[in-house]
Amino acid sequence: MSLPSIFLSALLLLASTSAAATTETTLTTRNQHLFRYLFVDVYTATLYAPSNSNLTGILDSGQPVRLTLQYHRSIDRDDMIKAAQVTLERQHPASRLAQLQADIDQLHTHFVDVSEGDTYSLARTADGELQLYHNNQLSFSSKTPGLADAYIGIWLGQNGLSDDLRSALLR
Fold this sequence. Notes:
This protein is an alpha+beta fold and 171 residues long. Helices cover 43% and strands 27% of the residues. It has helices spanning 3-24, 58-61, 77-91, 94-108, 147-156, 163-170; strands at 27-37, 40-50, 65-71, 119-124, 130-134, 137-142. A hairpin with a 2-residue loop joins strand 5 and strand 6. 20% of the residues are buried.
């Protein structure tokens, strides 16, 4: 391999590494809030979004966003699924929920019981893909249009899980 070829290869490798690093660092910690239920610390929610984004409109913006929940107590997966489903039913008309229900059910099959210290992260990528991470390991992804917005909306949308949590994360 000639010196110019080696230089060009190194330059291309450097450029691709820089682009990946830039992509990985586009989301910054924007807000964090301790969610309590009946005087019990349940989890700390951390919202990551582009540093220049308007948080009050982040759910409708299509921009990448990630919500991480770090649990402070054990919670049964069935309780998490029930709370999510009740919230989704409150937030969306039955016709819209029916369009997403098979994908929501598929997502829920990847839930496991959590213990103190466990994390779940929900991410919406720039192309609208929903990604679910359990303890930093990807456990589910879906490109179904609207699924990421609906599911992350449990925490960030109107009539969600907690108005206090939503307000604290989007301030």
